[in-house]
Task: inverse folding
């Protein structure tokens, strides 16, 4: 082989390939428009068998709502629940979060996977509300295999004892059937 055949010519500066400008980053577009500009507070409580998910209200203390959630779970299972409260957005300045809908959905899915996977699901306050936000939250949180029991939000039950009684009747029926 000759030395000429092995030589590879480098392109000259004037012949360099020009790449088209990169398209805008996908993160700047709303991936989940129904979750954009949402303000939401959710609580997750779980035991080995049950997971309770509820919308949280700013009008009633978190301690009261958490206490009610723990008492509901204690009625169906002896183990003390783990608890996570989620407030969105995480910062008062919304511009800090680049793709708010996608980040909120990813957080919901991650928390739901950790708390609800393989557990019976008790969803409070999400089933009654029929808005784009509530539907998107339900889609991210509630596994397709469905909800074991649903009812009004903890704050509504704290204000209305009939809501607690109705939930207790549904829980007793579900626990009796599954036992």
Result:
């Amino acid at each position: 082989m000759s030395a000429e055949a092995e030589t590879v010519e480098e392109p000259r500066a004037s012949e360099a390939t020009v790449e088209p400008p990169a398209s805008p980053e996908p993160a700047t577009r709303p991936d989940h428009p129904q979750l954009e500009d949402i303000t939401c507070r959710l609580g997750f409580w779980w035991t080995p068998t049950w997971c309770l998910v509820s919308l949280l209200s700013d009008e009633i203390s978190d301690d009261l709502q958490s206490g009610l959630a723990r008492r509901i779970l204690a009625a169906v299972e002896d183990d003390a629940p783990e608890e996570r409260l989620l407030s969105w957005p995480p910062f008062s300045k919304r511009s800090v979060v680049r793709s708010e809908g996608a980040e909120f959905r990813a957080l919901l899915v991650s928390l739901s996977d950790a708390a609800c996977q393989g557990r019976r699901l008790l969803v409070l306050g999400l089933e009654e509300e029929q808005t784009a936000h509530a539907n998107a939250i339900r889609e991210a949180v509630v596994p397709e295999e469905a909800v074991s029991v649903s009812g009004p939000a903890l704050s509504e039950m704290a204000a209305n004892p009939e809501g607690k009684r109705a939930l207790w009747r549904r829980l007793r029926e579900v626990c009796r059937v599954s036992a």
